[in-house]
Amino acid sequence: MNEQTWAPHVTVAAIVERDGRFLLVEEHTPAGLRLNQPAGHLEAGETLHEAVVRETLEETAYAFTPAALVGVYMTHFGKPGESGATYVRFTYCGSVAAGPENRALDPDIVRTVWMSADELRAASERHRTPLVMRCVDDYLTGKRVPLDFIQTHATAPKAAPRMN
Fold it and tell me: How does it assemble (predicted)?
């Protein structure tokens, strides 16, 4: 693997529980129709907080308000001896507005669904990755880190030229 070109993919995901049910998306993937939390990639210039709010809105049409970080997860997909792809996932929990906004969902999203943890566990063959259930289980055991644990530092402005 060429270490100069390798970089992990940074993703975010949202855990939303309402009345014992979790907000999920059913989405088209290369492996077929799968279940996942609202999730996606960090984009240039945005914070992790902004990314999870944006991704949740784009995939579910719900306005998401993060309350805490549930965990940071790293996973690698690929065959032994190949570089594959490494993902670092920041999973947040929080709440959504009472109802979805009137907007189209991302093209790969078929629909949103609300499932109990038991229903989700019973559908494990349809999970996008093993992280789907792992993140819910961590949430259910009470894992939480305050939002201010993640610090975003703005790029320092260029120094003004010195006048001598």
Answer: Monomer.
